[in-house]
């Protein structure tokens, strides 16, 4: 079985390309049984799910997905210029989609379990955030352009920590279920998330020391370590990078923005260069 992974297509930014045709070709050329999209395919859950449906009509490869942050952003119907706040509903739409949700349809094949689910950021990848006082945290969060998307009505600055905590709870439940099965300890596990589980997957320069806070959570990697996860596929940062730490291989499969591509005018080549294939 051959499973391809790719994230951060950002089709609504990378507008001058025919993604349906190129993806169908890439699935064919790579002989994929399944392709998993790791979030930030399009802005808004409806647009993303409709794209996956149209792609599924064009290819024999099974199309699965996990949500990124951009699938949870949406334009309010009443006021097209402001962002709506029903991210929870968008998350449910993505996770509960029977046809495409990897969360609903984990892959069990041979020795392998491939799972996927929601992920978010809780600032824990930032070196000093935990040590800041309340005022410093408030100032830090106000500087962040993402902050406005997910404030609740009480302007609760802890909303992102809560969303991350829920995603960690769901991930731990999946991992525990696998390990508690008969012969569960023998399974190899691959976990797909949109956000980063390790600061090392991001840029190390001090210039980026603030933005790393919004890239994910170090607690994903802690779960990987305690449950012996073999492979983590992530995206979000738009930095393709592979590294090994404490027995887990981490692979970032972001396609990212067109101006950073290696093959700027050839989407198919760029896709083939980006898609990570797990052959099991
Ligand atoms: Fe992205
Ligand atoms: Fe993202």
From TrEMBL:
Residues 1-239 form the Calcineurin-like phosphoesterase domain. It holds the Pfam family Metallophos. It comes from the Bacteria. InterPro entries: Calcineurin-like_PHP, Metallo-depent_PP-like, Pantetheine_PDE. Signal peptide: none annotated. This is Metallophosphoesterase. It comes from Peptococcus simiae.
């Amino acid at each position: 079985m051959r499973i391809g992974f790719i994230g951060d297509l950002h089709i609504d930014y990378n507008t001058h390309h025919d993604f349906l045709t190129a993806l169908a070709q890439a699935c064919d050329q790579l002989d994929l049984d399944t392709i998993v999209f790791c979030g930030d395919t399009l802005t808004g859950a409806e647009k993303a799910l409709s794209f996956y449906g149209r792609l599924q009509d064009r290819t024999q490869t099974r199309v699965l997905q996990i949500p990124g942050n951009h699938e949870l952003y949406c334009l309010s119907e009443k006021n097209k210029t402001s962002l709506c706040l029903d991210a929870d509903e968008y998350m449910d739409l993505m996770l509960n989609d029977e046809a495409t949700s990897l969360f609903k349809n984990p892959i069990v094949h041979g020795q392998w379990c491939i799972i996927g689910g929601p992920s978010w950021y809780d600032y824990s990848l930032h070196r000093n955030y935990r040590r800041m006082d309340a005022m410093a945290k408030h100032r830090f969060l106000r500087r962040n352009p993402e902050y406005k998307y997910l404030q609740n009505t009480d302007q609760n600055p802890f909303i992102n920590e809560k969303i991350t905590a829920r995603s960690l709870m769901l991930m731990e439940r999946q991992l525990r279920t696998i390990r508690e099965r008969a012969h569960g300890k023998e399974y190899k596990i691959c976990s797909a998330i949109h956000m980063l589980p390790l600061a090392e997957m991001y840029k190390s320069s001090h210039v980026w020391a603030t933005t790393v806070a919004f890239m994910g959570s170090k607690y994903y990697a802690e779960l990987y370590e305690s449950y012996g996860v073999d492979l983590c596929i992530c995206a979000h940062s738009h930095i393709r990078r592979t590294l090994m730490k404490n027995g887990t291989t981490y692979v970032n499969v972001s396609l990212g923005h067109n101006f950073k591509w290696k093959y700027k005018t050839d989407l198919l080549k760029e896709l083939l260069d980006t898609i990570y294939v797990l052959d099991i």
